[in-house]
């Protein structure tokens, strides 16, 4: 295990222990927007991750969801940290949330760690070295058609009335085995990587939501673009991840939905 991955795994496990301990306790909740919540657990988790990363890699930049990171001008390496991906789930004691830590080198994902502290599932990936669930190497699903696929999506907590994703949700539900909306993009991407889902799409995600998971999918043999098929970079407006086999079909359906929505305006 390289030093970057080792530190990220240790940080994710330490932060996950905090979340696991506090998951069944009453939550102290505040709001970053009308419905975008943050808990004290988010902040405590982020604090231990950032402290560990800074102690080992003081010259690296850190972009963290709750803002406790810090940019290093001209840094080659940048960590993208979501200390609690699935905060709404956590606040309701729904056990679908994770710690997500991704390291980007000159704009390209290098290391990814996603840890679900409730199931104790640890997903890891290093560029060029594959993706793993625990000690077992994982691969995307072999399913070839959208009609026999299980896919996933998510909806933004902000600007919900103007989100176009409900139209995508409707169409993909009709064209597939079903669409799941579990509320954690990092875990959704890992589910694509290990073959539980054939595809995932979402709009309006941030770099800390996807930097780890996108590498997981790629290293497991899948494909990650934006919704219209351009190369995806962490933080782009849209993401489309799949096992690669149903990617074109998902992209074509998305284009059809977008054209129809544009014509209706």
Chain-wise SSE layout:
Layout: H1 3-22, E1 29-31, E2 37-39, H2 40-56, E3 61-64, E4 77-85, H3 87-91, E5 98-105, E6 108-116, E7 121-126, E8 131-133, E9 136-137, E10 150-153, H4 165-175, E11 178-180, H5 185-193, E12 199-203, H6 207-219, E13 223-225, E14 238-242, H7 247-263
Parallel strand pairs: 3-4, 10-11, 10-12
Antiparallel strand pairs: 1-2, 4-5, 5-6, 6-7, 7-8, 8-9, 12-14, 13-14
Helix pairs in contact: 1-2, 4-7, 5-6
Structure at a glance:
35% of the residues lie in helices and 25% in strands.
Rg for CA atoms:
18 Å
Structural class based on helices, strands and sheet pairing: alpha+beta
The residue-averaged pLDDT reads 91
Point out poorly predicted stretches.
none
Shape: globular
Strand order of the largest sheet: 3-4-5-6-7-8-9
The CATH homologous superfamily of the largest domain: Fructose-1,6-Bisphosphatase, subunit A, domain 1
Specify the biggest β-sheet: 7 strands, mixed
Terminal Cα separation, in Å? 52 Å
**Helix proportion:** 25-40%
| Beta-strand content | 25-35%
How many E strands?
14
CATH architecture of the largest domain, please?
2-Layer Sandwich
């Amino acid at each position: 295990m390289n030093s970057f991955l080792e530190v990220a795994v240790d940080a994710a496990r330490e932060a996950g222990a905090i979340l696991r301990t506090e998951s069944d306790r009453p939550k102290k909740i505040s709001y970053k927007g009308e419905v975008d919540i943050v808990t004290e657990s988010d902040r405590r988790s982020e604090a231990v991750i950032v402290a560990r990363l800074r102690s080992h890699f003081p010259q690296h930049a850190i972009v963290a969801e709750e803002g406790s990171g810090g940019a290093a001008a001209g840094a080659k390496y940048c960590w993208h940290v979501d200390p609690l991906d699935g905060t709404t789930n956590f606040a309701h004691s729904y056990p679908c949330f994770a710690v997500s830590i991704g390291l980007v080198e000159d704009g390209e994902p290098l290391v990814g760690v996603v840890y679900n502290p409730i199931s104790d599932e640890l997903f890891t990936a290093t560029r060029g070295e594959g993706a793993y669930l625990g000690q077992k190497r994982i691969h995307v699903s072999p399913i070839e058609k959208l009609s026999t696929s299980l896919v996933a999506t998510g909806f933004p907590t902000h600007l919900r009335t103007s989100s176009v994703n409900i139209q995508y949700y409707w169409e993909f539900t009709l064209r597939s085995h079903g669409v799941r909306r579990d509320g954690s993009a990092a875990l959704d991407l890992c589910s694509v990587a290990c073959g539980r889902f054939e595809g995932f799409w979402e709009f309006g995600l941030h770099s800390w939501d996807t930097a780890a998971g996108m590498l997981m999918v790629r290293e497991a043999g899948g494909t990650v673009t934006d919704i219209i098929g351009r190369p995806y970079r962490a933080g782009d407006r849209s993401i489309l991840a799949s096992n690669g086999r149903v990617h074109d079909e998902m992209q074509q359906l998305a284009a059809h939905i977008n054209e129809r929505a544009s014509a209706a305006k």
